[in-house]
Amino acid sequence: MKISKGHLKAAAFVAVYILALYLWTLPFQDNTIPYGEFDAISHWELGDFIAEQDHTFVKLPAFLDVSYGGNNYFRPHTLWYPPPYHTNFAIISAFSPGRIVPIYLTNAVFASFILISVFFVINRLFGFMPAILSSFMLTFSLRDIMPYLWGQWVERFAYAFIPVILYCFYMYFTTYSKKDNKPLYLYIMAILLAINLLIHPLSFFHTAAGLFVLAVFLAIKQKKIPFNIKHVVISALLFLVLIGIFPYQTGNVLLTFQKPSSEEQKYSPISRLLQWSLNPSDYSGSVPASYFSFKEMHGLWTLPFLLLGLLVLVVRRENRDIFLMAWLFSLYLVLHRDLIGKFTFLHRSLSATAHIFIPITVIGALSIASFIKMPKIYQNFAKYGLAALVVALTLIYNMPQAYSTLNNAYDSPLARLNQGQIDVSEWIKENVPEGQNVSIIGPLPQIMQKVWWMASFSHRVSHYFEGFLTWKIYEENREETIKHHLLNDYIVVDYSDIALLSDRSFVNTWQEFEKANLANHTLLYNKDNIRVYKYESS
Amino acid sequence: MNLPKIENIGFMGIIVLIILAFFYMILGASGMTAVLGIVLFFAVPFYLILNNFELEQDEKLVFSFLIGVGLFPSLVYWLGIFISFKVSIFITFAIYIIVAYLFSKFLGRSHLRSS
Questions:
Q1: Deepest in the core among A254, A398, A484, B72, taking most CB within 10 A?
Q2: Are the beta carbons of B70 and A123 separated by less than 8 Å?
Q3: What is the C-alpha separation between A436 and A61, in angstroms, rounded?
């Protein structure tokens, strides 16, 4: 086998991508207990439930319906997301051993697919060096890593469609002539656009904005509008047929899009137009302020290169430059959609910035070599030197924070279930009838997430799982609570995090409650400081 | 950059072995089979379909995966309502492989056909 340049370049990309996957899988390499915020729980449990039940479903199972029954406005009590994304999790989960690693690894591959998309598009339009550097820098992009860890899994993957769909359109547009054209790109674009909608609507609308801007920019630049009725009709049909596969979910997307926002514009249009990012104070308590900071997310060292890259694009204005400018401008548009009353998930669109900022930054850095007049061979050397500089700066300024964020993600014992909680959840899954209420008493409000994870693991949950004891609901509404809820419930009393609690008064309260109220009921499970009772009328 | 052809068994074999070994090392058998499943179900059938069209190697690879993650689970999902989910995965895989075969058989004279 003769090793060619192509082999070496392919191997280099595989090495970068493997490095990315190594880093992005750090949170579950040594600790295979699931983690993440509420979004992560919902995504994991959807895939896990299908794989464990060995069936898909139209109507939500009871434990999902409790939380998400109203999320599909078009057809309540059905899936609120189109099924493909979570079915992918279920497919891999059914194919591979274990309930955690297959889903988390599939998610890591999906979320990091933006590295492949960006590499592919930049390599096609600007060559290998900018492409591999862009992928390398994206590996450490905190704007991608943070939402990936929190649980905005679906949209992380959906963003990977944007550059590829724009590329298909770009190829169709720029190669179009009356005599010769490549409609295949338009057909693939239509298929990918439909799949983009089936993965996540937020990204679909972002892509649609990108297509519009790219079409306008290219039409101005090329002074032509390619239009072939046959190509358009076939593409439209492909798109409509595909989005029609899941009518309940597509209907939900349309209704959600039409829903008026409950939020009101707080800022003047001018100040919003002049501001790229959003105000962290508007999201305090839900999103850390660092997420809104250019310095924290990209590193200030990238700013001069980014501005230089922009300048290069604006001055050069080749078709490929127009492509990047249109992508960037469409991001600006979706980040300012609040000006037309669309506030939903505004901050989430910010997580798409690195995908376009980084290629422009790299182009800016590499362009420095071409500013100085010198023989081609020296220019090439200078380019390699600048590439090495970009790698070094990324390793010095971006890598440490990205590594520690991934390596230390959810590593507190209070952030993930312990083995006792997993064991009891699996016991409940095997021994408690489906649809039966399970109330879990134990976790403090601060770690209530554990209860959600236990519910998710056991595929059982109830309206009262939040811990009525802590909120004194039980004390104040004892008779009503028993009559309408507790009777025939399974009650889980969980002391397993007892050593981690600083406030012993909680423990005493639980113990008193257990003694006074559950002693006469059937004890079904007693292991690792966790007990399960069947609460029957005595 | 011209990617080495998928048909270049030697190079591709080495890459696949490295990837599988890597995932086995960091995530055990579960990680390795998961990656195998991701490639096998989401990319392979659609790569075989796109291989019949006039596209570059890297285009076929990227398009096939992004199409695969949409079309493969869609069919599995609908079949999985009526039959076992695991069975529906393998039936879907077989269907798409047959589609790829039919494409290669009947697309011979199309202007979209790869030269």
A1: B72
A2: no
A3: 11
